[in-house]
Write a structure and sequence with these properties.
Layout (H helix, E strand, L loop, with lengths): L1 E2 L3 H10 L10 E4 L2 E4 L8 E3 L2 E6 L8 E3 L4 E4 L2 E4 L12 H17 L6 E4 L4 H8 L6 E5 L4 H13 L3 E5 L2 H15 L4 H19 L4 E3 L4 H5 L3 H4 L12 H9 L2 H15 L2 E3 L5 H7 L8 E2 L2 E2 L1 H7 L5 H4 L6 H4 L2 H11 L9 H11 L1
Parallel strand pairs: 9-10, 9-12, 10-11, 12-13
Antiparallel strand pairs: 1-2, 2-3, 3-7, 4-5, 4-6, 7-8, 14-15
Helix pairs in contact: 2-11, 2-12, 5-6, 5-10, 5-16, 6-10, 15-16
Length: about 350
């Protein structure tokens, strides 16, 4: 009835209102109510008019309504029981880095390799989690000539890792879109473009006999990996007046993103494992000062610093594009839309194309 934690851990977290009780996220039913952890790392849904009918898969319900992160849902309604901590900024650089180093190392080396593969893009996030499971095969998806495939090949060679390339095709994109829309309940192009490569990697991983996939999710949000964080407060995409404030905004987007990614991976036949989203890593990341998030154009400063002890320096410092661009999934889905008659001059032309594939 619970995923991600045992009942006693969740009961203790409810009693003490501890939002980060030492798990990698949890959700499910306990003592007559539904609960979902503060970062929404496990998706959870109930029927719109009947909270006693629930599922981890929205497709199992007639009118699914997500349980918000940090919430306990009963027949009496929703109660917010956990909120994300707002710790004081750690001003001692070495102490801050030491906390991140310890938390990241513990999280990535504590992963059980049984039935495990790695989603590997060649960036620092996936390289760090791969370092913790040295015998697991690495997989990357992308169209021919894409940035992610080239970066993954370079990083795998530097790390002496087995890399398997999942070459994306137009047919694979067309066939996968309706399934993903059904799984996610979303048709917006950004969500679809982001999960397409992840879903197709996971399908290949499952076909190869693995049932768990380790991913680097959470690193960009926790450690300042976005351009809009680097450019705060001048970037209109964030409201914050500081880099640290902008990073906090990104952390608060995790529940929506993780619901999307976890549902897509499970639909493909694998269970995601996200070491960088362990509570200990979150606790270490939250107090980081702005200069350990972004400094002189270098993003994810703290993570890159600790990564140097785990992976080659060239990999720790490698640039990475967002998955939808690094794999060409965004570009090629747009191309397919235009070939199908949905021209760019039309409003929301890619979403219209996505909806047309579902209707077919």
């Amino acid at each position: 009835m619970l995923r991600g934690a045992d009942a006693e851990t969740v009961r203790t977290a409810l009693r003490t209102a501890d939002p980060l009780p030492g798990t990698a996220g949890f959700a499910g039913e306990i003592d007559g109510g539904l609960v979902r952890d503060v970062l929404g790392r496990q998706p959870l849904f109930s029927e719109r008019d009947d909270p006693s009918t629930w599922s981890f898969d929205r497709r199992a319900l007639s009118h699914p309504v997500r349980v918000p992160p940090g919430t306990r849902r009963t027949t009496d309604g929703d109660e917010r029981v956990w909120t994300l901590p707002e710790p004081r900024v750690e001003t001692d650089r070495e102490s801050a880095l030491s906390a991140v180093d310890s938390a990241v190392a513990d999280a990535v080396f504590d992963v059980d390799e049984a039935g495990l593969a790695v989603a590997f893009s060649g960036g620092v996030d996936s390289a760090v989690v791969a370092a913790g499971v040295p015998d697991a095969p690495c997989y990357v998806a992308g169209f021919e000539g894409s940035h992610d495939v080239a970066a993954a090949r370079n990083a795998a060679a530097e790390m002496d890792r087995d890399l398997r390339v999942v070459e994306l095709t137009h047919d694979a994109l067309r066939e996968s879109v309706p399934e993903l829309v059904s799984v996610l309940g979303r048709t917006n192009p950004m969500d679809v473009q982001i999960v397409l490569p992840l879903y197709l990697v996971a399908k290949r991983v499952a076909a190869d006999g693995y049932d768990r996939l380790v991913v680097g999710q959470g690193a960009d949000e926790l450690f300042g990996g976005y351009a809009k964080v680097e450019k705060a407060p001048d970037d209109p995409r964030v409201d914050a007046e500081t880099v640290r404030g902008a990073a906090t905004e990104m952390i608060r987007t995790l529940p929506d993103q993780l619901e999307r990614d976890v549902l897509a991976l499970r639909a493909a036949g694998v269970e995601p494992v996200a070491p960088l989203l362990h509570d200990a890593v979150v606790r270490a990341a939250l107090p980081l000062p702005g200069e350990l998030l972004v400094s002189d154009g270098r993003r994810k400063v703290a993570l890159r610093e600790v990564a140097r002890t785990l992976v080659p320096e060239s990999v720790a410092e490698a640039d990475k594009k967002a998955v939808q661009y690094g794999t060409y999934a965004s570009r090629e889905l747009d191309r397919l839309a235009r070939q199908a008659g949905f021209k760019r001059r039309m409003d929301d032309h890619v979403e219209k194309y996505v909806r047309s594939l579902v209707e077919e």
